[in-house]
User: Fold this.
Amino acid sequence: MDRPIVLIIDDEPLIATTVEATFEDAGFEVRSVLDAEAAAAVVSELDSRLSALVTDIRLGAGANGWAVAVEARTKLPLLPVVYMTGDSAADWTAFGVPKSVLVQKPFVGAQVLAAVMTLMNSDNSDASD
Assistant:
């Protein structure tokens, strides 16, 4: 059986490495990129094989994590999305895609993993907007 694939987008290597290790230890195949442009390429390449998207909000130059999630959801409407940020949770209410989760920094990798697992195991009708 194929392992679930998670795409992690974060321009901070230490955070990305921590989150990657957590997902690899949990049996996921991990694709990790630094920016929105690279994320769009991975989403196109993997298409329906992609199991979840985990993105930071502030990604440096180019599109931010909000835009990455919106673009991914146009291709994969039920894709679980978890945002990692130090920004206000009010921003998530304003810009986050429906049925997503926001994990505030600082966090431990297990919190991000738990958020992804919750979304993957939901039937997409009971997750909150």
